[in-house]
Amino acid sequence: MRDPTERPLVDALRRGDARGFDAVYERYHRRIHGFLLRLSGRRDVAEDLFQETFLKLARNAPKLDEDTDLAAWLFTVARNAWVSHRRWSMLDLSRLVAIEDDVLPVARAPDPDARVDAARNVERLERALAALPAASREVLLLVGVEGFDQEQAATMLGITYEALRQRLSRARSQLAQRLAMVETKEALA
Amino acid sequence: MTPPEDLDRDLRALAPGEPPAEVVGRVRRLAHAELEAATGGTWLTTAVRAWNRVGLPAALAVTVVGYLSWAVTSASALYR
């Protein structure tokens, strides 16, 4: 569902107002960067695609429709940039390169023990996500992490609602299996 | 195996990824320049764009047509 507070931001972008752009940038830059980082698994690639996404927003600002859903627009552009990058690189490097350890912050927990547990859980989840096939990873990132509803995610990925539901269900079970494998390995170590 | 509802909760709780400050600043600067260019910018950028898109191609076309007509006229004069 479109956020009603975005309408003034879209209007500002259409006028070419730099402060409007800054507000949009402030609202979305962390999410887009995190999405691209988890999708690509590489900091340098994520930064290039991040730049490409926001420059495209600036370039297309006057042409935006009045009722543009900025979140959906930005994530679609970011995802398409990544798909295009993958096509050019001719190799899915994200399956060979694990996500860098220091890249993503750990959620804050109230006491030190809980913080260590939370950090370990996040690390497991990040590793399990990074090890999934790209198609599963992108659907989990859009629906699970970014909170898009399934119809929006289907539109963003250019697939039918039914195909998205199947892909999401498969991705969830792959992620659960990966997490179970990680936990088993840790228990044996 | 982790229950699906726990997976959804954990996924939702993943933190967004803060890019390096240098990247944030660079992209903002570049985007401002793009935004200005895309929405008209100063009279100078408008004039430069108009010259590049209309003036220059028109001047080139006039020069080529003028040269060709001179060449044809001269050649036919020599022939006669």
How are the secondary structure elements laid out?
The complex is a heterodimer of chains A (189) and B (80).
Chain A: H1 6-15, H2 18-40, H3 43-60, H4 70-89, H5 112-130, H6 134-145, H7 150-157, H8 161-188
Chain B: H1 4-12, H2 21-38, H3 43-79
Description of the molecule:
- With about 190 residues, chain A is mostly helical.
- Chain A has helices at about 5-15, 20-40, 45-60, 70-90, 110-130, 135-145, 150-155, 160-189.
- Chain A has eight helices and no strands.
- Helices cover about 80% and strands about 0% of the residues of chain B.
- Chain B starts with a helix and ends with a helix.
- The chains are: A mainly alpha (about 190), B mainly alpha (about 80).
- Chains A and B meet through α2, α3, α5, α6 and α8 of A and α1 and α2 of B.
Question: Keywords, please?
Answer:
heterodimer; A: 189 residues; Rna Polymerase Sigma Factor, Chain: A; Arc Repressor Mutant, subunit A; B: 80 residues; mainly alpha; 3 helices; 80% helix; elongated
